[in-house]
Amino acid sequence: MSIKISLKKGLDLDILGGVSDLTLTAVAPSTVAIVPDDYPGFTPKPAVKEGDRVESGQPLLYDKFNQQIKLVSPAAGTVKAVVRGERRKIERVVVEIDSHAKEPSAAKPSAGNADDARALLMESGLWAMMRQRPYDIVPDPDAKPRDIFVTGFDSAPLAAPSTVYLAGKERELAAGVELLSKLTEGKVYVSRHDGEALKDIPGAEMVDVSGPHPAGNASVLIANVAPVNKGETVWCLDIVTLARIGATVMTGKIPADTIVAVTGSEVEHPRLVSTLIGAELSALLAGNLKKETHHVRIISGNPLTGHRASMDGYLRYPYTQITVIPEGDDVAEFMGWAALSPKKSSVSRSFPGHFLRHKLNPDARLMGGRRAIIMSGEYDKVIPMDIMAEYLIKAIIARDIDRMEALGIYEVAPEDFALAEYVDTSKLPLQQIVRDGLDYLRKELK
Question: Is 0.70 surpassed by the pTM of this model?
Answer without folding.
Answer: yes
